[in-house]
Amino acid sequence: MKPIIPFEPVRAETIPLGSEWTHQLKWDGVRILAYRESGTTRLFNRQLRERTGQYPELLAPLLDAESYIVDGEVVALAPDGKPSFHEVMRRDGIRRLDRVPQLVREVPVFYMVFDLLELDGVALTQLPLTERMQRLEARLLPSSTVQLVQSQTDGAALFEVVREHGLEGIVSKRLDSAYPQGGKDERWVKVKNYGDIIAVIGGYTTRDNTVNALLAGVYHEGQLRFIGKVGTGKLTRADWRHLTTTLATIGSDTCPFVDHHPELRGASWVQPLLTAKIRFTEWRWQEGRTMRHPSLQAFVEVPPESCTLK
After folding, report:
1. Separation of alpha carbons 192 and 78, rounded Å
2. How much is the pLDDT for 128?
3. Which of 214, 204, 209 is nearest to 234 (CA)?
4. For 149-154, what is the mean pLDDT?
5. The dihedral formed by the CA atoms of 280, 284, 290 and 294, expressed in degrees to the nearest 10
6. Cα–Cα distance, 37 to 120 (Å, whole number)
7. I need a labelling partner for 282 at 20 to 30 A (CA). Which of 26, 65, 90, 207 fits?
8. Which residues contact 118 (CB under 8 A, 6 or more apart)?
């Protein structure tokens, strides 16, 4: 079987309504397609890089079938029981396969499957999603490591559960959608559950003499803790140029952060006077992690000392 590039959802800000849609949890993991033929399973990610060696516990038959292509997400859990991209990357990023047995014990993974693209030599990608899901459910062999992603008719209610538990988001799919390989369009949409925080700007990095990212922090026990590097958001190029001038007026020779994080290398420092609203998808500060997918929303006028972890 030749590996294929999976169909991707596009980002949306609102949940689609109507009976023609089904809604599923968006698992914060690694997209993996499983290919089985001639009694052997191989695993590939969305970039078509093989991951068979990284996940040996997923190589047993997943379906009651001789051959198949299954689409899903490999997930690992943090100590709080929530899916953690950081944890799953400990497995996915293994390059020395002699370390796999140890990490299988330390970081167990689960394969959450949600689509069936080929079954016993017959391509299913042109069938509607409803038929593919029915065949997947009928043939799946659930286990402690393999489970079917459940679908819901009420996307708004599912998203409330996501908000309540701090999960990543949902994916909404048209029930009549085919599966164009390597495609991406509005038949599948993802709505993410974002968090927001007001943070202090303590430094920046530049490219071509213009600021290209800000270094953000919040106070904890009287010390400014680094929480992430923010280089995307709602600022225009003109805004970044203006910001370059502004930051030059409050420059400092001293790093305001107490941390020694790798992302702080080569940065320029400023007095911790500016504050900004930052959106993020995940932030496990209790574990010493920085924000995931931070995005600058706006500068706000609040006392810097009020920007705390609590």
Report:
1. 19
2. 99
3. 214
4. 98
5. 0
6. 9
7. 207
8. 1, 67, 68, 69, 124, 125
The whole-number pLDDT of residue 54 equals 97
Q: Which two tokens mark 284?
A: 């496990």
Considering the domain architecture, whether residues 109 and 250 belong to the same structural domain is answered as: no
The residue type of 148 is L
What's phi and psi for 96, nearest 5 deg?
-95, 105
Last residue of a domain, one of 135, 170, 192: 192
Q: What is the mean pLDDT of residues 268-288?
A: 88
Mean pLDDT of 94-117: 96
Same domain? For 148 and 241 the reply is no
To the question of pTM greater than 0.85 for the whole model, the response is no
Q: CA 299 to CA 310: how far, in whole Å? A: 20
**Catalytic residue positions, numbered:** 26
- E strand or H helix that includes residue 10: strand 8-11
Give ∠ CA 227-89-115 in degrees, rounded to 5.
120
CATH assignment at residue 186: 3.30.470.30
Q: β-pairing, 40-45 with 30-37?
A: antiparallel
DSSP 82: S
**Cα–Cα dist 141/138, whole Å:** 9
Phi, then psi, of 238 in degrees rounded to 5: -65, -40
Where are the strands (E) in 175-310, listed by range?
Answer: 184-192, 195-207, 210-220, 223-230, 251-252, 268-270, 275-280, 295-300
* Calpha distance 258→234 (Å, rounded): 28
Three-class SS state of 38: coil
> Could you say which of 192, 225, 248 is where a domain stops?
192
Q: What is the torsional sign of CA 26, 27, 29, 33?
A: negative
Domain total in the chain: 2
Long-range contacts of 138-143 (CB under 8 A, 24+ apart): 139/63, 139/64, 139/65, 139/68, 140/62, 140/63, 140/64, 140/113, 141/61, 141/62, 141/63, 141/64, 143/60
Cα–Cα dist 277/221, whole Å: 21
Facing residues of 194 across strands?
A: none
